[in-house]
Design a protein that fits this description.
Elements (H helix, E strand, L loop, with lengths): L7 H26 L4 H26 L1 H10 L8 H7 L11 H12 L3 H4 L2 E2 L5 E2 L3 E7 L5 E7 L7 H15 L6 H18 L2 H14 L6 E2 L12 E5 L14 H22 L1 E3 L7 E3 L5 E3 L5 E3 L2 H15 L3 H11 L11 H11 L1 H4 L4 E2 L5 H15 L11 H17 L2 E2 L1 H7 L5
Parallel strand pairs: 5-9
Antiparallel strand pairs: 1-3, 2-3, 3-4, 4-6, 7-10, 8-9, 11-12
Helix pairs in contact: 1-2, 1-7, 2-3, 2-4, 3-7, 7-8, 10-16, 11-12
């Protein structure tokens, strides 16, 4: 929607209207199900999930801001949302329509004291990219450096808390999220914390510097430099680091795609298990690839620092799964807070079923081909059974929301790269302290 930001009052009205439509749709579906056979009721329920997802996606996409960002996260949360809704929310992963240049110029002047034309030798009026909370413009500094200028949409930070409260109400009203209040509170508290951090571009600048320093001597990873004199809480200027979008890697030779895939996987493991600080927004637009095998990182607004005890339990759980030690898997999930012991007992066969699906790339004999991976399809086939039998046995720990997001997101990246390799050795090398 190529428009000025929506006012706070208007946002609340739009979100309340969305909540009423979603809740009304589910109420109607529940009433109809009383008079339907099981097959018709299931068909109607599926259609209601799809319609509700489309209503939520349309509203969040037009409002941008925190709710759109949460919608993007929710689109991969297939463990707590019906697949029809998750698929509808997937539309939010596409690039958002930009704001008018006048809105951006006013924001730059408010933040840096002068309009873009006075601060830069060149400032492109057409954005280089647009997202949920801001957009990026190419520019050149007076000393000749090519840079990108990330400008936050006005008013986004003021609306975070009310947006999240309204979104939570909508999801609760639909009856979709079957979580205990304590778990839901922790989940939304984690989202709120990460979003407030992401909206503070001074915090993001610190994150960029942290990762740039960590990868300084790694020739296979590139992180931009911060241009501090042209940055503030809502404007962030970074050196321009070019690279190919993942869609452009289709023409790369297999050997190069394998090398890039190994780089992606190794980098993910290093961040999770060694650095214990993760770049937690694995949207494909936040990475670029070069023909020399280099991986370029963009957008460090969402960074999660992981607690050592969480990573210790995570290591144990994965190692137990690889070794088919299902008692160990159970203990690890309890330590992680993912296992609700008040729910139904989970038999070893159930863990084995998931183990055989999820560990496939790491137990394969020889090279594993991510281009042929169907883990996501096989996992989705078992979601209905999970919802019927074991949903009460598990809960998504807030601490793992962004870690899971990274793992799922990079699985998608590896599939799109069609990377091949022996990834089990790399993973096991990071589990030695388990």
């Amino acid at each position: 929607m190529n428009d000025r930001p929506v006012t706070k009052g208007r946002r609340l009205f739009r979100l309340a209207s969305m909540t009423a439509r979603v809740a009304g749709g589910y109420a109607k579906s529940r009433i109809k199900s009383v008079f339907q056979n099981d097959e018709d009721a299931e068909r109607d329920r599926s259609a209601t999930h799809t319609r509700s997802g489309e209503i939520i996606a349309k509203t969040l996409g037009e409002l941008k801001g925190a709710v759109m960002k949460v919608g993007q996260m929710a689109s991969i949360a297939r463990d707590i949302l019906p697949k029809e809704m998750a698929e509808a929310l997937g539309s939010l992963q596409r690039e958002a329509p930009p704001m008018p240049y006048e809105v951006i110029a006013e924001q730059v002047e408010r933040e840096l004291g002068s309009p873009p034309e006075a601060l830069f030798a060149r400032f492109d009026r057409v954005p280089f990219a647009a997202a949920s909370i801001g957009q990026v413009h190419r520019a050149r500094t007076d000393d000749g450096r090519e840079v990108v200028v990330k400008v936050q949409y006005p008013g986004v930070d003021d609306a975070v808390d009310s947006d999240l409260s309204s979104l939570r109400l909508a999801l609760r009203a639909s009856g979709l999220i079957k979580l205990k209040r304590q778990a839901l509170d922790a989940l939304f508290a984690e989202l709120r914390t990460r979003l407030h951090e992401e909206l503070d571009y001074c915090n993001e600048a610190d994150n960029v510097r942290f990762f740039a320093d960590y990868y300084r001597d790694n020739p296979e990873v590139v992180v931009p430099d911060v241009v501090g004199e042209r940055s503030s809480q809502r404007v962030l200027t970074l050196t321009y680091e070019p690279g190919d979008h993942i869609d452009e890697t289709d023409s790369y030779p297999q050997q190069l795609r394998d090398r890039l895939g190994a780089n992606v996987f190794r980098t993910m493991c290093d961040q999770i298990f060694e650095l214990q600080v993760i770049h937690a927004d694995p949207n494909p637009a936040n990475f670029a690839f070069r023909e020399d095998g280099t991986l370029v990182f963009y957008d460090f607004g969402c960074v999660k620092r992981l607690r050592p005890e969480v990573i210790a339990a995570y290591r144990k759980t994965i190692a137990s799964g690889l070794d088919e030690d299902y008692d160990g898997v159970e203990r690890g999930l309890v330590e992680l807070g993912a296992r609700n012991l008040e729910g139904p007992v989970v038999p070893p066969e159930y863990y084995k079923m998931w183990r055989d699906i999820l560990t496939e790339p790491f137990v394969a004999v020889g090279d594993y081909d991510y281009g042929r991976a169907d883990i996501h399809h096989r996992a989705l086939e078992h979601i209905p059974g999970f919802l019927m039998k074991y949903i009460g046995s598990f809960q998504p720990p807030a601490e793992l929301v962004f870690l899971d997001r990274v793992v799922v997101g990079h699985y998608g990246t590896m599939r799109r790269l069609r990377a091949r390799g022996h990834f089990g050795d790399v993973l096991r090398s990071h589990l030695v302290s388990a």
